[in-house]
Each structure stands twice: as C-alpha cells, then as structure tokens.
Amino acid sequence: QAQLVESGGGLVQPGGSLRLSCAGSGSITDIESMGWYRQAPGKQRDMVAVLSRDGTTTYADSMKGRVTISRDNTTNTLVLQMNSLKPDDTAVYYCHVRRIWGSPYWGQGTQVTVSS
To answer: What residue ranges in 1-116 does DSSP mark as E strands?
Structure first.
C-alpha cells in the first residue's frame, strides 16, 4: 500500500519561510496531479498549490507569489516552498495525489504555525 508522508512543518515567525516535503513510499500509478492542501481549525480543506502531469501549476489566489510547488524526480518528492508567511497561513498542510484511475492519496498532514 503506497503512502504519502509530509515533513517540514513547524513554528515560524510572520514573514518567515518553510519548505514542506512529501515523500511517496510504494508505487502510485496513473498520477493526474499532485498538490498541497491546507485546513485550519473549523474551516474546510482548501487547495494551496497543484502540479499537473503536464507540468502546469495552479496556486490559490491567497498564496500566489509566496509559494512554489515543484517535484524532485530524483527523490520522488513533492516540495512546497513557502515564503512571506502570515498568521492566516497557520493550518495543517496535506499532500495529495489525484489519479486518473483509482482512489486519490492523502498524507497524514504536517502542522504549520505562523506566530510571533
């Protein structure tokens, strides 16, 4: 059974940066897109950034200019570089894989807290 494992979350001051990583274990086939979502307490889970199989990137309006999604093919890792973080960015961040066929995959989440 393939799994996604996020890392890189933590506590950062406003204006700071974090780099989240998502490592896949096992084989995940028929990938349509990979992305990052986040969920703050009491709120729905929202898209942060998505990398489609054709290389197209999509970013949430609130994150444009502050985040970059990329994939390291040598390590099979999905990366989210976040800069100029704000307290409103505080949430649990989840890695997600959407497949052309079959069920999607979610990671267990990594906490990001932006606070002084």
So the answer is: 3-7, 10-12, 18-25, 31-39, 46-52, 57-59, 67-72, 77-82, 91-99, 105-106, 110-114
